[in-house]
Write a structure and sequence with these properties.
Elements: E1 2-9, H1 16-33, E2 38-44, H2 57-67, E3 70-75, H3 81-97, E4 102-107, E5 114-116, E6 123-125, H4 131-137, E7 143-147, H5 151-164, E8 172-175, E9 178-181
Parallel strand pairs: 1-2, 1-3, 3-4, 4-7
Antiparallel strand pairs: 5-6, 8-9
Helix pairs in contact: 1-5, 2-3
């Protein structure tokens, strides 16, 4: 089995329900991916035990980011210091090592207006907490910025990104709140 790992970074409090739903849908997708020899694993910082940590816990998360194929950032009303650090680590690792293969920033309903940029794969966030995220992603190869209204839409973007990167077969979609094989 080929394991495809994705790291989900965000404010834990602001996106508590979305993170739980994303984890459930990624897990549900495995019934469709396993016949193709792929298993999806979503890494969330709150899943990593800190009970016996010998080093700064954030460094353990950063190490996961450097190993996962897709880094997903949920951008809300704020982007905290650690979340921003995770994005910078992902972009640096991607530039220097090619991993993660993709960086996907998803802007939630609290972000505000998105305006089209020159590339059809990039959107700019104007006058919002996501503006700093957009400026870091601008011009970076393998980076995408999209909007989402709910967790199901966020997962649909994640699945599209994984499929476009050639990491997941078959094409997956969310239909009626369930993971389905797409066309």
């Amino acid at each position: 089995m080929h394991i495809v790992r994705l790291f989900i970074a965000s404010s834990i409090v602001e996106f508590k329900h979305e993170r739980k739903r994303i984890g459930a849908l990624v897990s549900d997708a495995n019934s469709l991916c396993m016949p193709y020899g792929t298993v999806l694993v979503a890494d969330f910082c709150e899943d990593q035990s800190s009970a016996l940590a010998l080093s700064r816990k954030q460094e353990e998360y950063n190490q996961l980011i450097r190993q996962d194929q897709l880094f997903v950032l949920l951008v809300g009303s704020t982007v905290g210091t650690y979340t921003m650090e995770e994005l910078v680590v992902a972009l640096d690792s991607q530039e220097n090592n090619g991993i993660p293969q993709g960086v996907l920033a998803l802007c939630g309903p609290a972000v505000g207006h998105l305006a089209s940029a020159s590339s059809n794969r990039m959107l700019r966030v104007e006058n919002t907490p996501g503006a700093e995220v957009a400026s870091l992603l601008d011009g970076q190869r393998g980076c995408t910025l999209k909007r989402f209204q709910n967790a199901d839409e966020a997962v649909a973007h994640i699945f599209d990104c994984l499929h476009e990167m050639g990491l997941v077969q078959p094409k997956l979609c969310i239909e009626g709140g369930r993971v389905r094989q797409g066309a």
